[in-house]
Design goal:
seven-stranded mixed sheet, alpha/beta, about 260 residues, disordered N terminus
Length: about 260
């Protein structure tokens, strides 16, 4: 499905050439695996009665596949601006309803129980409009689940190569979500225990000029070690601990 007028413009929001890189690493890379489990846990905890789910900016369909597996009774939909991402998502999540769509123009009103945007809105200049569109597309009392990169001082060439517009502070994200008409139920950082490593890697990337593909190349022993660290961190989050800092933010909110 292609929503009218939503064809991507060259250089807009993301580089479609990165989808193949993502598809090759998402299933095994410690950060993607940890984020996936954090998202699924948030959906289980806050929205056990979920029936209609939309992921805005579904990329290669990794989250859609996991949501469909964990919630088999749920109607799972995904939107993506770029057809290159949708082609991979169609293979990974064959049961999902997919559409090419600009998140700034969502053609639904009071339709979904939950909408997720996972590392998406930092790519969009008018993120406030995206949040407002999501608000209108949700049923009354519906839920929003968002992940974004955190801390402006972590800005580096990785962000530039990924076409990020910003990295968020906690206060900024909460304020924008509340201004869009949501009540925030939870906000926590993640990648907290690995924050010193992340900071050092960003300094190294800044000095060397390495871009996004290099960030995904983790030696197997390091990847396994970092995965164990993130397992501990996820346990803390699942116990209800809101971590004070980290490379990313998770926010859960309800439509007022």
């Amino acid at each position: 499905m292609l929503a009218p007028g939503h064809e991507p413009r060259p250089g807009e929001g993301y580089d479609p050439a990165h989808y193949e890189t993502l598809a090759a690493v998402e299933d095994t890379h410690f950060w993607f695996a940890a984020r996936m489990r954090i998202i699924i846990a948030a959906l289980q905890q806050h929205f056990p009665g979920l029936r209609r789910f939309l992921e805005v900016g579904c990329g290669t369909g990794t989250v859609l596949r996991a949501v469909g597996a964990r919630f088999p009774a749920v109607t799972v939909s995904g939107s993506e601006l770029f057809p290159e991402g949708l082609a991979i998502a169609r293979r990974r999540a064959p049961g999902a309803r997919l559409m090419q769509m600009d998140a700034r123009r969502i053609p639904f009103r009071e339709h979904f129980d939950v909408i997720g945007a996972f590392d998406v809105i930092e790519h969009i200049e008018d993120d406030v409009r995206v949040l407002s569109e999501i608000h209108r597309a949700l049923k009354p009392g519906g839920g929003l689940v968002v992940t974004v990169p955190q801390h402006r001082w972590l800005w580096s060439t990785q962000d530039e190569q990924a076409h990020h517009v910003r990295r968020y502070t906690r206060r900024e994200l909460v304020q924008k979500v509340e201004d869009a008409g949501f009540e925030v139920r939870r906000v926590t950082s993640f990648v907290f225990l690995l924050l010193p490593v992340l900071w050092l890697s960003r300094l190294r990337a800044k000095a060397s000029g390495h871009g996004v593909p290099d960030e995904f190349r983790a030696a197997r022993p390091l990847n396994a070690l970092f995965g164990l660290v993130m397992t501990v961190e996820r346990a803390l989050i699942n116990m209800g601990l809101d971590l004070p800092a980290g490379g990313s933010l998770l926010l859960v909110a309800l439509k007022r």
